[in-house]
């Protein structure tokens, strides 16, 4: 299992097909049953992945919100179908309704504006609404609003009251894995297996993979210089390192304007990740039981709007908040190979925490952060304290050190509207033979794979034109 990546959802079907991932062993199980959210008043809602079943749940929970819930889902569907139509192709006029705009160069802002000119709601969802504005437009019940708020700030150093955060909700709902719009799922063996399948495909194509060999310098048009002093000659260097690390490796070879754009993208993470080994699954008091339908999907430990505001402010001030928003995933329910017999895994994705504390180091605050996360989950459970066997805590500096992501930012920089589409870094750079292929490029962060394909296609076109 990967300590930092939990679910697949945005992995592009074209990448899966072209690299033959299923023939290499790639299998996944949908995170069925959607999103479960318990509340402190003892109520709860199961936002099923099946629309009919989910509507029945919403009607039971808050009858006055049924129509608004339908409308909220419909604007997400309309926007997804506009930008990423089912069976979308790699090229063509987007107005013909066939081009997947994640594939290839990012469309210009004007192109997107024109595409959405007849759908004001979809335009606001993509470019301007905060997550709070989004849910408040369609939903009345405060609990139902809070059930969705966290989906607008996943991995994002912004408050759900900040402009543009609703686009984060859309980004994470825009996948079509397995032909199921918006579905996420568990990869057998853990998300790290996706990297191994990519590696197998590369080796089969003739690549030599040298893991653990650090690059000291990128030499545009010449290749790279390794930390050990060895020089590898290459016309093309494609970097999956985050843009700040790539910039550091370019050093004086970086174009000044490009370097300024790289530095303008916020890249300070706000997420703490816990990997927890459990004796039994959490028993949520709102829906008791340790082997229930909600354990097969995702679970949120929600915050009130006041807690969201206070939590974000605390982290920005360099302190831990009183409560964390936590999203929980249970890989072992779907894949028994990832845990010892009789035990379970619980992956926790929580916000907000500071990258740097106002006083003290992350090492000094690690135990406090662990206790806070478990307490934030435990207030909805009856058994968590006794169920925990062991916990790994990864704050932003740990993610930076272990995974190599500057600032511990899981998307190599913010994915808010100001940094997406044509405003995101391109695969091509001004430096001769230097390309980017990571989450910092179009179409943004998550385990998508199409960023790398976009870079590869750009390299092939440029090499062909240079002949």
Short description:
It comes from Tunturiibacter empetritectus. With 467 residues, the protein is of the alpha+beta class.
Structure description:
This protein has 467 residues and is α+β, with helices and mostly antiparallel strands. Helix content is 36%, strand content 14%. The chain has a domain at 47-183. It has helices at 13-18, 21-24, 51-61, 66-83, 109-115, 120-127, 131-138, 142-149, 166-173, 192-204, 243-250, 256-264, 305-316, 331-334, 362-378, 384-387, 396-403, 450-466, and strands at 28-30, 35-38, 44-47, 185-187, 215-219, 223-226, 231-233, 237-239, 271-278, 298-301, 325-329, 344-351, 388-394, 434-436. The strands form four sheets. It has a seven-stranded mixed β-sheet with strand order 3-2-10-11-12-9-13. Strands 5-6-7 form a three-stranded antiparallel β-sheet. Strands 1-4 form a two-stranded antiparallel ribbon. Strand 2 (35-38) and strand 3 (44-47) form a beta hairpin. Helix 4 (66-83) crosses helix 6 (120-127), helix 4 packs across helix 7 and helix 7 (131-138) crosses helix 9 (166-173). It comes from Tunturiibacter empetritectus.
